[in-house]
Amino acid sequence: MTQQGDARHLETLDRDLERYSNLDRLSSYTSRPLVGPGISLVFVLLAGISAMLFFGQESNTVIVVIAACLGAYMALNIGANDVANNVGPAVGAGALSMGGAIAIAVVFEGAGALIAGGDVVSTIAKGIIAPESMGTASVFIWAMMAALLSAALWVNLATWVGAPVSTTHSVVGGVMGAGIAAAGFAAVNWPTMGKIAASWVISPVLGGVIAAFFLWVIKSRIIYREDKIAAARTWVPLLVGIMAGAFGSYLALKGLKKIIKIDMSSALIIGLAVGVLVWLVMIPVIRKQAEGLENRNKSLKVLFGIPLVVSAALLCFAHGANDVANAVGPLAAIVQASQSGDFTQAVSIPFWVMVIGALGISFGLFLFGPKLIRMVGGQITKLNPMRAYCVALSAAITVILASWLGLPVSSTHIAVGGVFGVGFFREWDAERRMRKARLRLPDTTVHAPEERRRRKLVRRSHVMTILAAWVITVPAAAVLSAVIFLGINQVMG
After folding, report:
1. Rounded distance, CA 217 to CA 229, Å?
2. 257: which of 72, 217, 265, 419 lies 20 to 30 Å off by Cα?
3. What's the sign of the alpha-carbon dihedral 62, 63, 64, 70?
């Protein structure tokens, strides 16, 4: 009787412990979604406090503090939305773990924003609208405030519903809408808007072409060779050297110019030297990696691990240089107009403003990025290290070129263009090989299965979604910004 009672007591205790365990699990799951927003709120408040400390006790301190909070909020959204495009291919291809991808992105995004983020900030702040058309500094400040808030709200809403929108489109539309509401259509610099709009079309096409070209190089020079490993020992170091050379030229042109004056020819010479050095260093590294590998495509994935990681880092640097403008461009303009009353001259960007943008992008990625990284890496199209390398390298080169020219292009569009470029090239290559096979074997029945397989290489259903997002973002952000500006103007008199 005592043993039966002890057994029932143990069973009851086990059930109670299981209930407590389930309750603990449930409470952890319910509290986890609050961690990200809580840390984000703390960061936004710290950005406001930093603005108060660095700006000083002046008449417009409250305005600058509010603008800094909005800039931090926008930067968080950029990190949550855009950065997944940079490291997603590497994670989807298995070359990087989630933690490693986030660590690389945080370091290189911040470095790109702080070292090379100035040129595009000037385009966002002054190039889209004519500041002199605003009349007074107050009107200009309200317009920039409305643009910043509308862009942040739109990106946040789109991220919440899962819509693939561009943060660059959002802030450009916001600045344009506020400018039109403040001073009419004449306030907009339409030639600059035309260049920006053209870059939105050209950049994904260029990204796709570059990605397809590198995939052609890899397939024709490595994959389709009889001795794949020997070919990879020759070509993989060269591909890494090309990437390092592009990065070296860009860093010299954008970063070192703050220390010494470097022209384009000198930057190209520096890039060439860096590329050759990295190429020579990678030759023994790849040779050692290739030892003992079997002569098949699966073995090539090992050799492309390092190039893919480096290309992801390069893309993060370029993205930080380009997209920090979306967060701190209007903020820098507000700070300058509030401090000096001058809103028609070139924008000087305080270091603390750039830090808010860089840290905000990093925090946004760390807190909200993993889910989108998984989606970009595995749900758009099937990627292996070779294809992911082509996408990342093409996107990096395109974003670097755009940042050098001062054009605020969308890294989202470039990355998507690269993915589709790789997929469409694979389809074309598969069709070409099938035509050759049918010529050798006229009586073949592989045509229909090949058509079915080709349709799976690129998900056509994403095309209309992406195009719709591209079309709606600019007018939606512009209308929202105009409404916010009119509201602020009404309240402030």
Report:
1. 15
2. 72
3. positive
* Token duo for residue 354: 């750039």
From CA 85, how far away is CA 398, in angstroms rounded?
14
Q: pLDDT tens track of the chain, all 493 residues?
A: 455 555 555 556 455 545 545 544 443 443 456 777 888 899 999 989 988 888 766 667 888 899 999 999 998 988 887 777 778 778 877 778 888 888 888 888 888 877 766 665 565 656 777 777 777 888 888 988 999 999 999 888 877 776 667 787 888 899 899 989 988 888 888 887 887 777 777 888 888 898 899 999 998 888 888 888 889 899 989 988 888 887 777 777 666 665 567 777 787 888 899 999 999 999 999 898 888 888 888 888 888 887 788 778 877 887 787 677 777 878 888 888 887 776 666 666 788 888 888 888 888 888 887 777 776 666 666 788 888 888 877 877 776 676 666 666 677 778 778 888 888 888 888 888 888 777 776 555 445 454 444 456 666 666 677 777 778 888 899 999 999 999 988 887 6
Tokens at 449, concatenated: 């299965």
Q: CB neighbours of 128 closer than 8 A, spacing ≥ 6?
A: 172, 175, 176, 179, 188, 189, 192, 193, 196
From 235, 237, 229, 236, select the one nearest 292 (Cα to Cα): 229
Instruction: Count Cα neighbours of 262 within 13 Å in the Cβ-side half-sphere.
Output: 21
Task: Name every residue whose Cβ is closer than 8 Å to that of residue 383 and which is 6 or more positions away in sequence.
Answer: 89, 92, 93, 377, 391, 419, 422
Q: How many CB atoms lie within 10 A of CB 55?
A: 21
One DSSP character per residue, 436-488 reads HHHHH-SS---HHHHHHHHHTTS-THHHHHHHHHHHHHHHHHHHHHHHHHHHH
HEC string of 226-251 equals CCHHHHHHHHHHHHHHHHHHHHHHHH
Structure tokens at 164: 């693939």
Instruction: Give the integer Cα–Cα distance in Å for 114 and 184.
Output: 35
CB 176 within 8 A of CB 474: yes
Q: Which helix (H) or strand (E) holds 152?
A: helix 137-161
Taking the model in full, what pTM does it have? 0.77
Separation between Cα atoms, residue 450 and residue 433, nearest integer Å:
11
Q: What is the identity of the amino acid at 127?
A: G
Q: What residues have CB less than 8 Å from 241, skipping those under 6 apart?
A: 275, 276, 278, 279, 282
In residues, how long is the chain?
Answer: 493
Q: Residue 372 contacts by C-beta under 8 Å, 6 or more apart in sequence?
A: 80, 81, 84, 88
Write down the H helix ranges in 184-223.
190-218
Residue 446 CB partners (closer than 8 Å, separation 6+): 434, 437, 438
